[in-house]
Amino acid sequence: MSAILPPQERVWWKQPLDRVELIWIVVALIWCLIMFFMMPYWHIYGQQNLSNEAYRSKPEDFVRKTEAMIAQYKVREDGGDLKVPVVRPPAGSDVYMVAQLWRWYPILELEAGKSYRIHLMSLDWLHGFSLQPENINIQVHPGYEHVLTVTPTNPGTYSIICNEYCGINHHTMVSRLYVVK
Ligand code: CUA
Questions:
Q1: CA gyration radius for the chain?
Q2: Among 60, 49, 67, 58, CA closest to 138
Q3: Predicted confidence (pLDDT) at residue 28 exceeds the cutoff of 90
Q4: Is the CB of 165 under 6 A from ligand 1?
Q5: Pocket flag, ligand 1, residue 167 (CB < 6 Å)
């Protein structure tokens, strides 16, 4: 097929298909299907993707649960003048973190090798929970409770950054997560 055919012959689906073209279409289709089925496969066997859930929830309820957890399990304060509570909840429990213009609240201290259900909710805007240097990155929407089931394996101090643009102080919306032995 040539680009300089007269108009009536330019209807592309009426043109004969070249053998090489057909081969490439089939190759591309097969590759698409392989990539598509790799997604569920990799989720189950590759352990690369998070197991997460999200459901609608009221901000007031979420704040109440967060405050209750802080009141019960606060161990110290951190963040200099900001005085952000550091909470060490029992292993295996549900833990809560609020995303809000422009902070993450509170700071969690988790035990290595133990599983936790981390609940996240935004009280105002769309924020992004990005845990560095791990490959954990999820959007945090207002009105939804996002639950990540995680088992931290390496002790250390991890950084949390917001990676959805949320206004003038977006770049200051940072925090930490401690993993201890
Ligand atoms: Cu929160 Cu950007």
A1: 24
A2: 49
A3: yes
A4: yes
A5: no
